[in-house]
Amino acid sequence: MRFLVCVNNKDYPASLELRKIYRVLPDARAAKHGLVRVIDESGEDYLYPADYFAPIKLPQLLARKVFAAAM
Question: In terms of C-beta density within 10 A (0-12 exposed, 13-18 middle, 19 or more buried), how is residue 60 classed?
Fold first, then answer.
């Protein structure tokens, strides 16, 4: 599992919360265009500019708990 922290929500204030941790879904095609696919506030996955996020490495136990809480 990969997670990102939102560092910019300028164009998406209703969909992204600053400083919130989001789960990333793999999408190589989107990455080629500078985008990331995340599960946003709607509970669905959408593409956002990659520079709106910063990578975060969570300990395995915490990552499982964050993932379970999002389900």
Answer: exposed
pTM recorded for the entire structure: 0.84
Contact present, 6 and 61 (Cβ < 8 Å): no
Strand partners, 4: 22, 55
Domain ranges of the chain: 2-70
Q: What is the pLDDT of residue 60?
A: 85
Q: pLDDT (tens digit, 9 = 90+) per residue, 17-69?
A: 999 999 899 999 999 999 999 998 888 999 999 999 999 988 888 878 877 77
The CATH number for 2-70, chosen from 3.40.50.10190, 3.30.160.390, 3.40.30.20, 2.30.30.40, is 2.30.30.40
**Which residues 6+ apart lie within 8 Å of 32 measured at CB?**
none
